[in-house]
Write a structure and sequence with these properties.
Among the domains are: about 100 residues, Sandwich (Immunoglobulin-like), CATH 2.60.40.10; about 90 residues, Immunoglobulins (Immunoglobulin-like), CATH 2.60.40.10; about 120 residues, Sandwich (Immunoglobulin-like), CATH 2.60.40; about 100 residues, Immunoglobulins (Immunoglobulin-like, Sandwich); about 110 residues, Immunoglobulin-like (Sandwich); about 120 residues, Immunoglobulin-like; about 170 residues, Immunoglobulins (Immunoglobulin-like); about 140 residues, Immunoglobulins (Immunoglobulin-like). By secondary structure, it is of the alpha+beta class. The protein is built from 24 helices and 108 strands. This is Cilia- and flagella-associated protein 65-like isoform X2.
């Protein structure tokens, strides 16, 4: 789109006209009266008077119409001026739909404008009706804007518009407008109300936006004016040419030439082809077709009938090109230029065509009539065959009336590919031999020759029969010069041996007598043979044997028939024998010769008299007389030898005359020529060429033609004068130019001897010499070229001569090394322009000047001729060698992460800032950084593909190279791209050219789509499973490991999810197989729902899908199903048909960093173990086969769920004194409690095999697991060798199955493994996330962490962690309460607060304390936080209160009515209040209690009977009625369970100190815990001793004892007095018995240990409030180097006292009181030091510090202060000096 012309370009903008006095009064257009509704009254807007005169009266009416539905009352006020009057104002009442007419009268007094109004008042408001009287005014209406849209530059666009006189007066208008806009006519006169059409013209000069303004002046003296804005856009047109049928989308801006090739065309015909002109611009494009060579060349054969036109915008037109060849067998080249308007663009059309003439030949070369008797007639035929595709005109040059040979047809037309048979007759008049070489002239081809032979015998004279062989021998004798000798002389010579016979029977001179080799006669062209007869030109091809001095006897006009002068002709005998002349014409004919027969001696001449005897006046006469000359010795066959027999010679004489009387005009010739312009082919100077001209007689009278001779003798014609008796005459025109120039001649045909019938044919010919025109005046410039490379340039030469030229480029040896041309030689046709490609190859950085020469000469011409003479043209070629370099815009190009197997592309832009084009080759060096060894990646293909690695970069330009990376491995790729300058044209020693140069670095990383499980959550039947257990059941660590690993090639066979198999169980191409174990649950329990949070941990998008077996199977038609289903297939079909497993969503796409929760559901609707293979497919990534496993347990079945039959213990170092305890968990997946026991026999066998050392110890081999709960079985693994131990242990389930689990333990040597085997608190190094990411429906409270790791701890120490509970509900309070899953966990774990309540959005900090006690162990604990919705709890409490109230009412309230007297008999229909079990766990406990309760509460079973349908229906109705009346007890809301996992590992103090020496100082070891542990161990040992003596009893005794004890206990439970006594004891205060006892006077010794910094620390710990066993201090390590701080302090004090005593000269004496005082102070100090050494003091100090930190955290959480805020510095005011300080300062001043 062209840009808008700025002010700085005034040339392209229509400048605004000069300011005109535009005083335009306010003219109101008189529009039709419009009506308006005012408050329900419809009235006209105003009243206007026009065309009034002063002194008169004018009246108009105002019509008021009530269009409202109610009656209205109107009041009005009369006009204020006296010029308008109306009726006296009175109220007007208008009913609905009625009207009132108010007349208004106008009485003007002078010619001015009057304005007034009438006011109307209604109940709802008022309105005015203006009344005006205006004067006649002048006004016109013109369009505000004229848009010419787009127009081609220098083209014209017209638009018409109308100007209307809207005023009252006639006005003259005149337009003022600036270029490039014009308006015609520029002025006009418009009468009032008249309109005139104007034409606006837009003629842009350049391509830009033109904006102008046209001012229309009007009014008196053209003082007023209105303007019209004009706008148009100029665009440059551009026309592209193409051959017809070529689409425009294949054209480009460089397509400036279209070449049209015409097929060989017959001469004289015209063919036409079309050229398409394409206008790709949005404006029309006027064009002109120029033919530059039409005026300068004489042989123009191409023409374009359509010289100009218009190409519509965005379309094309076709123009014709015609080809009319005028010369046979020539190739013509010409050019047309299609020029857009204004010569803005030019496109060339190159036309190439070749011509062809007819191809005609005779069926025979000679025709022999043989022997004919005198008076007889011989007949023969000959065929004229046209083998071409064009018509051919022919003419036999024979006058059949006068010749002995008569043809049925002498002229005619032969159609293409046909033949014509000519019947020939032989009518001899004399008994002689006859021979004539007859010419058949073919138009546009040339003559054909036919030899006619014949022999006539009479009774007396019988010459020898002339045969064709005699003719052949005669031609041979002519070549040998023997034909001029008479036969008798030749016969004698043969007999005498002077002449010999050759093999063909021809005579020949002996070689001895003729040593020189005979020269054969040159081959004479047919046209030369025909034309060069010595009469029509001065040249004769051969010396005639017999000649006639003239070939034309013209008698002219013979008006007097009686007196006609005869003509005398002479015949000369040039032979050495006597010759007889025999004329065939008789005396009775019009033309005759006397004598008819005559003998001419050798070398003599004889005269003959030609007589003209016309018999008819006013007639043309003409004839070709024929005579035969022969050796007289050939008159009789007896005198003839066969070897010397020769044919006669035929001479012809053309006779013409006419007998028109003086007052009679000759006949009107009606004829036509085949062309009016005859162009000859170019020839050399003084050489000849021929053309044929066809004259057709269209009339019925003969035509006498006489061709005027060319005075310059350049052109000659044969025949020149004769009488045309037939239909056509073929003339042969010959041109023989003397000089190299063009020759033009008007060939004049004088017809019928009258000048007024003259016809003219324009003749053009030329003699040519080689002439070419060099482009750019013979100077050729090459652009700067890089050394060693070539730059090409096309240099054009044009053949301006009319002959085809052969050319050759010549160069000196020095220039040949740097310069070359293609083609170096060839042919250039006439008028052809050839572009030769030159190549310049510099070898150094310097400037070159070379001078190649072009040598041209005419093709096929003799070197001495004008056209064949060589000419030389010199060209000056200038070039310069240079060198440059290539740069890349970005030195580092990062493709980012690309999926392996896919590709991505970017453009690399390289720039050449030098002045020469550079040939470059790109080199790629690939480096990989990844986990693969070099041996594997060494043979990898390049992962970087460039769309071009070689090319030419032009000077000061850039190339965009498409770089595509296709990584094949998951590695980091780094490609170094360098370039090397190519010197294909020579070796260059420059190092910059030879060595590769760095270009840029390309970086990319091959990745696979990956994702990982970042969190897991389960609910439903699996609510009791902790996150760690779920992580293990679903093998999520292995899944994440597989998802992050590389897929195999088989997995990448299908990049996306594809149905690829018709098998019922489609094959899987992955080795990554793992289980998704949904654990176990009772039948019909809640579905097990597992939510997994999948996170895209990679950098590319990941498309994933879970594919069931049916998703991989190709669906077949029913008839294609074959075979039976096996057991596994049936099982899978059952699982899928019942939808036991479901996944939602089943597929999706994750962007990098995006997370998505996928829900896996297993429904417990069918008992048994269910398995289903599911394929997890990542698009272009891994395939992982997931075996979904779920177990549904029958309600009464005892079942322990074993996820795996193998268990791996944490590796333990060999030589551990106390091996840590480890845990193996068992999960009860059934609905009933399960008892189990481990078979320890394999452990005992292993112990015996290992030197009676317990390798595996099961500490809790027997136990009971509640339903839906887990039990932690404690094990201890104590290896004695660094190896792997494996043992199969049977696990017996009471009333259930037995499972065998393989336990594996690895013992390692710490000295060998070193740091490679870290000591951790994680048993299996699990990757369970610590923060919840997956949301669960109904979850209101969240934990800040779900996994706490306490790490490695020494025994008898404490570790603390903080966990925050947050209520994320917006409108609900939530209460929480912490529980431990096992009561044993409470001994080492405490949390505070245990319970609490959170308002919406509130968070609370919970402190978790882990106490390391007991023996070294692994801890994996699970805390459960029950979160209860308090809103639901309040609702439950209200419903429970209402239920209990109703229960109380029904219990004590009854109503006695007579209608219900039999209520006691209908016990089954009583309304019952049933309590719903509060939770699943509680209901199971109640069932247990009932099972173990009294045995007396059994009921008899109902009788077994079959119910009838009616009874069954009644039973169901009663049940429905009972259910409708039943009001169940409200159940409390089920709390939401949150699991908090804790891991820790405890070590023996000495082991911890050795293993973690740097961390030991971070823990506080409480020795009181060890003391308590010793006491508890002692109690256990005493209990064991006391229980070691077990009293054996029988089963009956045990039953009695149990029965008695149960009755006693049951009696105590039923005894109310016992209950009251227990309550009283509980409520009594505790007596102070413990405080009365005396404490030991001396405290136990306190062990000290040195910290890592050398300072001593006391081993202290509190916890008097916790009931935890203590271990004696003997187990603590004792540091002998540790010294109490008090002793260090006493030493320092002693040293200071010694120094003081040394300073004092006399020792001081102390009193006894002072000594006692000092002793008491020392005792107090020792008492304080001893107090600090107590464990209780350390515990108190630790508690104080802990609570202080806790208070700080609590205050920070409640936002009482900000921990992270920067500290504030308080600037105190400057303190003034005290009186003492001021006095001291003054004293110091005085001293100074």
């Amino acid at each position: 789109m062209p840009s808008v012309v700025e002010v700085s370009q005034p040339v392209a903008v229509a400048t605004a006209p000069q300011p005109v006095k535009q005083y335009v009064p306010q003219i109101t257009q008189i529009a039709p009266m419009e009506k308006t509704n005012f408050h329900g009254i419809e009235v006209i807007n105003e009243i206007v008077w026009q065309g009034w005169e002063p002194g008169r009266e004018y009246t108009k009416n105002i019509i008021l119409k009530n269009v409202n539905v109610k009656t209205q009352k109107i009041k009005y006020r009369v006009p204020s001026t006296r010029f308008f009057t109306t009726l006296y104002p009175k109220p007007v009442i208008l009913s609905a739909g009625t009207s009132f007419s108010l007349p208004v009268t106008f009485r003007p007094l002078e010619k001015v404008v009057y304005n007034d109004k009438i006011e109307f008042h209604l109940k709802d408001g008022s309105f005015d009706v203006p009344i005006r009287a205006i004067l006649p005014q002048v006004d016109i209406s013109v369009p505000e804007f004229l848009d010419f849209n787009m127009c081609a530059a220098k083209d014209v666009v017209h638009t018409n518009f109308v100007v209307k006189n809207t005023g009252d007066l006639e006005t003259k208008i005149e337009w003022d407008v600036k270029a490039p806009f014009t308006i015609e006519p520029s002025a006009a006169i418009l009468k009032s109300g008249a309109a005139r059409q104007f034409k606006a013209t837009f003629t842009p000069i350049t391509a830009c936006v033109f904006q102008g303004e046209a001012v229309c002046k009007y009014g008196p003296d053209l003082a007023l004016g209105k303007s019209t804005k004009l706008e148009g856009i100029g665009k440059y047109p551009h026309i592209l040419v193409s051959c017809a049928g070529k689409p425009s989308n294949s054209l480009n801006s460089t397509n400036h030439e279209a070449e049209i090739k015409f097929s060989p065309t017959p001469v004289g015909s015209t063919i036409q082809k079309w050229v398409e002109l394409h206008n790709l611009a949005p404006v029309r494009a006027p064009y002109k077709v120029q033919h530059p060579s039409k005026m300068s060349r004489i042989d123009t054969v191409f023409d374009c009938p359509q010289k100009e036109g218009i190409v519509p915008p965005m379309s094309s037109v076709r123009i014709p090109i015609t080809y009319s060849p005028n010369t046979v067998d020539t190739t013509s080249t010409d050019y047309f230029n299609v020029v857009a308007i204004g010569n803005i663009s030019k496109a060339a059309i190159k036309c190439v065509g070749s011509s062809k003439g007819p191809s005609v030949h005779l069926g025979a070369k000679n025709v022999n009539f043989m022997q004919i008797d005198l008076g007889a007639v011989g007949t023969r035929t000959v065929d004229i065959i046209n083998n071409s595709e064009i018509e051919a005109s022919f003419q036999f040059m024979l006058d059949c009336n006068e010749s002995v040979f008569k043809l049925e047809k002498t002229s005619g037309v032969i159609r293409p590919n046909t033949s014509v048979t000519i019947v020939m007759k032989f009518v001899p008049q004399n008994p002689i031999n006859y021979y004539r070489r007859l010419t058949c002239m073919i138009h546009n081809q040339g003559p054909l020759f036919l030899d006619l032979l014949g022999t006539c015998h009479s009774e007396l004279v019988k010459p020898a029969v002339l045969l064709s062989r005699h003719l052949d021998r005669y031609k041979c004798h002519v070549e040998r010069g023997l034909s001029v000798y008479p036969p008798e002389q030749l016969n004698e010579s043969v007999k005498s041996g002077k002449i010999e016979l050759d093999d063909a029977g021809c005579l020949m001179l002996p070689e001895k007598s003729e040593p020189e080799v005979e020269k054969t006669l040159p081959v004479i062209p047919p046209m030369d043979e025909y034309f060069n007869d010595g009469f029509h030109c001065d040249i004769n091809n051969s010396v005639p044997h017999v000649s006639i001095d003239t070939n034309l006897a013209d008698f002219g006009n013979c008006s007097n028939l009686r007196v006609i002068e005869d003509k005398i002709i002479n015949i000369t005998n040039h032979t050495y024998g006597k010759v007889t002349i025999q004329w065939n014409c008789g005396n009775d004919q019009t033309f005759s010769v006397m004598p008819a027969t005559m003998d001419i001696p050798p070398q003599k001449s004889c005269a003959f008299q030609v007589t003209f005897k016309p018999t008819v006046p006013n007639q043309f006469f003409g004839a070709e007389l024929e005579c035969f000359a022969y050796y007289k010795s050939l008159r009789d066959y007896r005198l003839v030898e066969d070897n010397t027999h020769c044919p006669p010679w035929c001479l012809t004489l053309t006779c013409a005359g006419q007998t028109f009387q003086p007052n009679n005009e000759t006949f009107l010739p009606r004829l036509s020529f085949d062309t009016s312009r005859l162009v000859f082919p170019a020839v050399n100077a003084k050489e000849s060429t021929y053309r044929t001209l066809l004259l057709t007689n269209n009339g019925t009278t003969p035509i006498l033609f006489d061709i005027q001779k060319d005075p310059t003798n350049t052109y000659t014609v044969k025949p020149a004068k004769a009488l045309l008796k037939g239909q056509q005459q073929i003339f042969v025109v010959k041109i023989t130019p003397n000089d190299v120039k063009h020759y033009k001649h008007d060939l004049t045909f004088r017809l019928n001897d009258d000048e007024k019938y003259n016809k003219y044919v324009e003749l053009w010919g030329s003699a040519e010499s080689p002439e070419v025109v060099l482009d750019t005046e013979g100077v050729m410039y090459f652009k700067q070229t890089c050394i060693g490379t070539s730059s090409s340039k096309e240099y054009t030469i044009k053949n301006v001569s009319r002959i085809p030229l052969r050319f050759e480029w010549k160069m000196v040896h020095k220039d040949k090394q740097r310069l070359s041309v293609n083609p170096s030689s060839g042919i250039i046709q006439p008028n052809e322009m050839q572009a030769h490609t030159w190549s310049f190859v510099p070898a150094a950085e310097e400037k070159y000047v070379m001078k190649p020469s072009l040598i041209v000469w005419g093709q096929g011409f003799h070197s001495s001729s004008s056209g064949g003479k060589k000419k030389q043209f010199t060209v000056r070629a200038i070039g310069e060698g240079s060198i440059g370099d290539i740069r890349c815009d970005n030195s580092y190009i990062d493709f980012g992460d690309v999926v392996v197997g896919s590709s991505t592309s970017k453009m690399i832009s390289i720039t050449n800032n030098s002045t020469c084009s550079l040939h470059y080759s790109l080199i790629i060096d690939q480096a990989m950084d990844g986990p693969y060894p070099e041996e594997i990646t060494r043979d990898d293909k390049l992962a970087l593909i460039l769309d071009r690695t070689e090319g030419v970069l032009p000077a000061r330009s850039r190339h965009n190279i498409l770089a595509t990376v296709k990584p094949i491995r998951r590695v980091n790729y780094q490609f170094a791209i360098s370039y090397k300058l190519i010197t294909p044209m020579g070796q260059v020693v420059d190092s910059k050219v030879q060595e590769p140069q760095h270009l840029c670095h390309v970086l990319t990383t091959g990745v696979f789509p990956v994702m990982a499980v970042s969190d897991a959550r389960c609910y439903g039947s699996a609510v009791g499973i902790s996150k760690k257990q779920l992580w293990a059941l679903f093998s999520l660590d292995n899944l994440n490991l597989c998802l992050d690993s590389d897929p195999s090639s088989e997995e990448l066979r299908y990049s996306v999810a594809t149905r690829h198999s018709h098998a019922r169980r489609p094959p899987v191409y992955t080795r990554a197989i793992m289980d998704f174990n949904f654990s176990a649950a009772p039948l019909d329990s809640e579905p097990c729902v597992v939510n997994l949070m999948f996170e895209n941990t990679g950098t590319v998008a990941t498309e994933w899908s879970f594919l069931f077996p049916t998703d991989l199977q190709l669906e077949l038609e029913y008839w294609a199903e074959t075979g039976e289903f096996d057991e596994d297939e049936l099982h899978e079909m059952k699982v899928m048909d019942n939808k036991l497993f479901s996944i939602e969503p089943q597929q999706g796409k994750l962007e990098p960093g995006e997370c998505k929760t996928v829900s896996f559901t297993y429904r417990h609707t069918m008992a048994g173990t269910d398995r289903l293979p599911v394929l997890l497919k990542l698009a272009r990534g891994r395939e992982i086969l997931l075996n979904f496993i779920g177990v549904t347990v029958e309600p009464e079945r005892k079942y322990i769920h074993f996820p795996s039959n193998k268990h791996m213990f944490t590796p333990v170092a060999v030589g551990e004194k106390v091996s840590p305890k480890q845990v193996y968990e068992l999960y009860n997946g059934g609905a009933t409690p399960v008892k189990f026991n481990f078979d320890l026999a394999p452990l005992e066998l292993l112990r015996q095999e290992n030197f009676d050392q317990p390798i595996f110890e099961c500490l809790t081999p027997v136990g009971e697991i509640p339903p839906g709960r887990s039990f932690s079985v404690e094990w201890r693994f104590s290896p004695i060798e660094a190896k792997t131990y494996m043992i199969d242990v049977p696990i017996h389930v009471h009333n259930g199955d037995t499972a065998i689990v393989t336990f594996t333990g690895v013992g390692f040597d710490r000295r060998v493994m070193g740091d490679t085997m870290p000591v951790t608190d994680q048993q299996d190094l699990t990757g369970v996330p610590g923060v919840q990411s997956v949301s669960v429906p109904g979850q209101l409270m969240y934990l800040s962490q779900e996994r706490l790791s306490f790490g490695n701890l020494p025994l008898f120490s404490r570790a603390r962690r903080m966990v925050f509970v947050t209520n994320k509900a917006k409108d609900r309070d939530v209460s929480f309460e912490w529980h431990v899953t096992s009561q044993a966990d409470a001994q080492c774990l405490s949390i505070s607060p245990v319970r609490g309540r959170l308002s919406p959005g509130e968070s609370r900090m919970c402190r978790v304390v882990f106490i390391a006690c007991g023996v070294p162990s692994f801890y994996d604990l699970d805390l459960v936080c029950e979160a209860t919705d308090e809103m639901e709890m309040d609702k439950y409490k209200k419903e429970l209160a209402a239920w209990e109230k109703e229960k109380y009412r029904q219990k004590y309230e009854f109503c006695i009515t007579e209608n219900d007297l039999d209520a006691d008999k209908r016990l089954s229909d009583d309304v019952e209040i049933v309590e719903r079990p509060s939770s699943h766990l509680r209901s199971l406990e109640e069932k247990k209690m009932e099972a173990e309760g009294e045995l007396t509460k059994y009921k008899t079973l109902p009788p077994i009977k079959q119910l009838s349908p009616d009874e069954r229906k009644a039973l169901e109705s009663r049940k429905k009625k009972k259910d409708s009346e039943l009001w169940e007890k409200p159940s409390p809301p089920v709390p939401f369970l949150l699991h908090l996992g804790l891991t820790a590992r405890t070590h023996d103090i000495r082991e911890f100190q050795a293993t973690f020496p740097e961390e030991y100082s971070n823990y506080f070891v409480d020795r009181s815990l060890s003391e308590r542990a010793i006491k508890i161990a002692g109690k256990k040992q005493a209990l064991a001793k006391s229980t070691s003596t077990i009293i054996p009893c029988s089963t009956g005794e045990a039953d009695v004892i149990s029965g008695v004890l149960s009755n006693v206990l049951r009696g105590l439970l039923d005894d109310t007095n016992f209950h009251d006594a227990v309550k009283k004891v509980i409520n009594d205060d505790i007596p102070y018995y413990a405080q009365i006892g005396e404490k030991p006077a001396t405290a136990p010794p306190i062990e000290m240990r040195a910290g890592p910094s050398g300072k001593t620390k006391s081993v202290q710990e509190d916890s008097p409030r916790e009931d935890i066993s203590r271990v004696s201090s003997a187990t603590l390590p004792i540091s002998p180097e540790a010294t109490p701080p008090s002793s260090a302090g006493s030493k320092k004090s002693q040293k200071s006292e010694k120094k003081k005593s040394r300073k004092t000269k006399t020792p001081t004496k102390h009193t006894v009181e002072e000594v006692e005082k000092v002793k008491k102070e020392g005792e107090k100090i020792k008492e304080k030091q001893n107090l600090k050494k107590l464990p209780e003091f350390g515990n108190v100090a630790e508690s104080i510090i802990e609570n202080t930190m806790l208070n700080i955290m609590t205050e920070a959480l409640s936002e009482e202060f900000n921990i992270t805020a920067r500290p504030r510095f308080i600037a105190l005011p400057k303190r003034t000096a005290s009186a003492k300080s001021r006095q001291s300062i003054q004293n110091n001043c005085k001293k100074n």
